[in-house]
Amino acid sequence: MTANTPTTGDSKGSVTGVTGRRIFSGIQPSGRLHIGNYLGAISQFVPLQEEYDCIFGIVDLHAMTQIYKSKEMSQRIINAAVNYLACGLDPNKATLMLQSGVQEHAELAWILATVTPLPWIQRVPTFKEKARQQPDNVNMGLFNYPVLMAADILIYKSVAVPVGEDQRPHLELTREIARAFNARFGSFFPEPREIIGSQARVIGLDGKNRMSKSLDNCIYLDDEPDVIREKINKQGVTDPARVKRTDPGNPSICNIFTWHGFFSSKEEQAYCAKECRVAGFGCLDCKAILIKNILELLAPIQERQKELMANLDKVQEIIRDGTERARKIAQETMKEVREITGLTYLI
Ligand code: AMP
Ligand code: TRP
Question: pTM of this prediction?
């Protein structure tokens, strides 16, 4: 597949303009991960771990803002960890941690909430979107979601955060919160920048909306090859104006062609564009090339998923060790935060 190198970076993982060493990003354990998560977020993590001190969080406290069954949470956490590792995260290079295992995240979130003016949160687009999606459950956790996210990032004094495009407003807010804290208590937190790759907004099978679990338009990282074949052939929307096999198509408005840009070689992309424009082949022929490339990319990931699933003790140990390491850093930061905010009476 084509490489997903972080914006303005080099292939090794350095990112121009990022001078510090610590990077944090998080993924909610809210079900299975899809190729949007992979292209937009996880595939960026892998090169970064070569150059930076990366901490990747499984953010279970964030996932609580949606209704879920308590007994399913552990399995979701395992799935997220297995996916991170199967996609190439190396526990010897990066830290994989569980958010609820480091209580300091929630403590810092409270402190940051006290320097965050209400209107800043009211205008966050993701809050409005979630409130629309789950009108019966517009809880305070949803409202506080970006403040907890700022705490996740700032507690490690992170300088950069690799994420998909949808998270940009949260990063802007994180910088504003850091600035507000620094203005009140003295310069302390760095203002982290977002690292947004070239594949930061993957559209789903429907050809219209961002790939998202809630929209049933996903290819999941653990979908079986037959399922992927069937989803792309039956649900994958192409150029809507190309009705018959003999109609010439327009690749520039075809989402399947956009996906070729993520998964296929330059030669295959040129071939598909040409054949489509002259009706030299049909959409199913074009899809067959895409399917082959997606399956090729996913095969080693799925193999590692299976190996890891058969070795859950090892996965648990990685999460435990990573969380412990993260906790030490977070505790150091909170000690300083308590000092500069005057919360030292009993210390
Ligand atoms: P979530 O599954 O919402 O917790 O997202 C985890 C990470 O994947 C975040 O960095 C998102 O920005 C990224 N992400 C989610 N969906 C997509 C998508 N359709 N395209 C690109 N990135 C995505
Ligand atoms: N809000 C992110 C998402 O929905 C998940 C997240 C939580 C996160 N805390 C974070 C991402 C800190 C980056 C940094 O995808």
Answer: 0.92
